[in-house]
Amino acid sequence: MPSFLRFLPSHIFAALFATFLASFRTRAALQLEILALRHQLSVLHRSVKRPKLNPTDRLLWAWLSQTWAEWRSSLVIVKPETVIAWHRKGFRLFWTWRIRHGKTGRPVVSKETRDLIRKLSRENPLWGAPRIHGELLRLGIGIGETSVGKYMARPRNSPSQTWRTFLDNHVKTMVSVDFFTVPTIRFQVLYVFLVLAHDRRRIIHFNVTAHPTAKWTAQQLGEAFPFDRSLRHLLRDRDGIFGSEFRKAVKAMGIEEVLSVPRSPWQSPYVERVIGTIRRECLDHVIVFNETSLYRHLKSFVTYYNFSLTHLSLDRDAPESRPVQMADAGRIVEIPQVAAIGIRALKDAATRRHAAHAHPHLVWAQLASGLVEDV
Is residue 289 part of a domain? Predict the structure, then answer.
């Protein structure tokens, strides 16, 4: 059956047949019939608020609106604007059908390419669509610049580097300074000033005092960098100990201060982690009597930290790089560090756990045991 006949229902045929028969009737009979039909339409219009029309009815009136100039005068059941909306909707459906069954539009961008565009835009917030488009063309990915702009990640805030990016970009020319407190056996509070280099996590300088002042802190900075002019950035918090004298000394050395946000220790992660290591592996296992006692403990631990303690971020190496010694270089011997006495390098895991439980303050002394050649 043809699609046209399948599309038109029986009442459309009835209307067409009645129109054909009306051509054989007199003009008076036609006018009376028109009057009767209009009266019935007005009654239905008063009785039904919204008549139900199927797609065929809409198609008929959309066709009449394009072929009959006086179609508005005979329209009663709906408004003329509704018929115009039907025509526009049919126009859209027609072109949608033609696009789907005809020539295709733009080629589909693969999921891998879309993910790559989003990754490039997130990791390079200053890059626009032309720059990313150029990088994709260099990679052999054929795509339009408009499509690149469509799939770019949209940042919520203005593009700015994070603290992690800032630290990575200036790691070789940056140090962190900070204070931490240590109570003595007589409940006196001592202050420890620490200077840490970011490149190799080295503790460059430290000192202990019971009365920290801005002038004393500035003097410590001069002792830490007497001739070094490669330092460009100094990261610190907003503690009141860093007064005007300290700021003047930093400015005179040509160093730029980078202040962290108040109550944000995560913005100084390296020095905060070192302070935690000093507490866990040294100060939590000793009793501090006075400034001299604390300075002696810290000096021993700083030597161990810089030359023996390995770091994950340094590929299991120490801040002052340790040479790799093969197992056939000789037998393993003990090198006591930090603690007053050392323990032998234990090969048995169970015995090592027992020793660690019995002497927790000597665990790092056992870990500090190195491989040396037995001459």
Answer: yes
